[in-house]
């Protein structure tokens, strides 16, 4: 069996994972201690504070779930949705569709407001659907990774709360790469992943619930259907009680702690500007190469750039040559964009001038 050291290094510029800074890798390699060790419990408290900072929230119920971003999605939905609840989901890509499917599996009555791939959700259509059905939960993806589209969140909570609903937001790709304002936007529950703009390896999912969401959780008529993701149990491990629930991924929490420290040192405003600058540099190169975005102008994500593959080009072959000849990973299209688009991620540690120039130079050579 070949050693792990035989695996080649890659410049990860796809939809995730993003490049991991050496400081985070070093933290990951720190000796493991027990998950109930007082030193580790103190580190958990610091992780919670760091997550509150990037989520821009004071929510007491803020923690890192053991699992990737999809674990955060399941956590929020299975805790806040019961059989027969009305759930409205905005769908304009793969991850909106996944939200709807997870909600259906809880026994909820799910309706969707759909938008064409590459376009943002229509606020008027959402407002009309909320007024029509008074949903218990409205769920929207902030940054749709499959299409490179940002959906507007500000102001949506007012519509949801007027009908006594909860607003759930998927921040997997947006957190720490563009403004995410949980408290200011009135978001009731949100989740993310460590492998995108936080530049930490995949394996944890930051989750936050507002007091309104916690009150809904406390009023459940039925048990949370997942034992592993049951926040009524997990809050006792992450809270003052420190009651055993499961063995936390200790070294992953070391890594997240270091990644959050890097975010604080840079400062969120500077970090957002860096992601925006990298996107604009790539956009200028895309234009120069005669290519176009598949995502709607005015709603393009800075950290996930969805670009139409040139006509007559085998996009999968180009991606394979990028990997084999240049050591660069980019993503292909999903769903409606499968075989038609490239997804270039400029996330966290990878949102740099050097990353843009490297991938653009390689693409230019291959397309020539």
Can you tell me about this structure?
With 368 residues, the chain is of the alpha/beta class. The protein has 2 domains: 10-17 and 268-367, Alpha-Beta Complex (Aspartate Aminotransferase, domain 1); 22-264, Type I PLP-dependent aspartate aminotransferase-like (Major domain) (Aspartate Aminotransferase, domain 2), CATH 3.40.640. It has 13 helices and 14 strands. The protein has helices at 22-28, 38-55, 69-80, 94-104, 123-133, 156-161, 182-185, 211-218, 231-238, 250-266, 268-288, 315-326, 353-367; strands at residues 11-12, 61-66, 86-91, 109-114, 137-141, 143-144, 149-150, 166-170, 189-191, 204-209, 304-308, 328-329, 331-332, 341-345. The strands form 4 sheets. It has a 7-stranded mixed sheet with strand order 2-10-9-8-5-3-4, sandwiched between helices. A 3-stranded antiparallel sheet has the order 11-14-13, covered by helices on one side. The protein has a two-stranded parallel ribbon with strand order 1-12. A hairpin with an 8-residue loop joins strand 13 (331-332) and strand 14.
């Amino acid at each position: 069996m070949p050693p792990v050291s035989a695996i080649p290094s890659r410049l990860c510029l796809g939809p995730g994972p993003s490049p991991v800074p050496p400081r985070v890798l070093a933290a990951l390699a720190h000796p493991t201690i027990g998950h109930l060790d007082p030193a580790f419990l103190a580190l958990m408290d610091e992780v919670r504070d760091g997550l509150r900072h990037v989520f821009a929230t004071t929510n007491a119920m803020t923690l890192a779930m053991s699992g990737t971003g999809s674990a955060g999605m399941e956590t929020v939905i299975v805790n806040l949705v019961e059989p027969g609840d009305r759930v409205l989901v905005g769908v304009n890509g793969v991850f909106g569709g996944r939200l709807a499917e997870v909600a259906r599996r809880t026994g909820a009555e799910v309706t969707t407001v759909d938008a064409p791939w590459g376009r943002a959700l229509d606020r008027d259509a959402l407002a009309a659907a909320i007024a029509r059905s008074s949903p218990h939960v409205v769920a929207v993806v902030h940054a749709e990774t499959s299409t490179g589209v940002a959906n507007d969140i500000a102001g949506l909570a007012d519509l949801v709360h007027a009908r006594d609903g909860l607003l759930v937001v998927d921040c997997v790709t947006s957190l720490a790469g563009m403004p995410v304002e949980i408290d200011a936007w009135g978001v009731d529950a949100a989740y993310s992943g460590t492998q995108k703009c936080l530049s930490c390896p995949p394996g944890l999912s930051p989750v936050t619930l507002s007091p309104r969401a916690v009150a809904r959780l406390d009023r459940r008529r039925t048990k949370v259907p997942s034992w592993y993701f049951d926040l009524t149990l997990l809050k006792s491990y992450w809270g003052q009680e420190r009651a055993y629930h499961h063995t936390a991924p200790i070294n992953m929490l070391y890594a997240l702690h270091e990644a959050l420290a890097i975010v604080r040192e840079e400062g969120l405003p500077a970090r957002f500007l860096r992601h925006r600058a990298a996107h604009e540099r790539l956009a200028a190169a895309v234009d120069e190469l005669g290519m176009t975005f598949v995502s709607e102008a005015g709603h393009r994500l800075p950290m996930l750039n969805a670009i139409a593959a040139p006509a007559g080009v085998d996009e999968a072959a180009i991606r394979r040559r990028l990997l084999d000849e240049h050591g660069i990973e980019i993503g292909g299209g999903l769903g409606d964009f499968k075989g038609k688009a490239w997804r270039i991620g400029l996330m966290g540690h990878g949102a740099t001038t050097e990353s843009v120039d490297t991938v653009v130079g390689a693409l230019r050579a291959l397309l020539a």
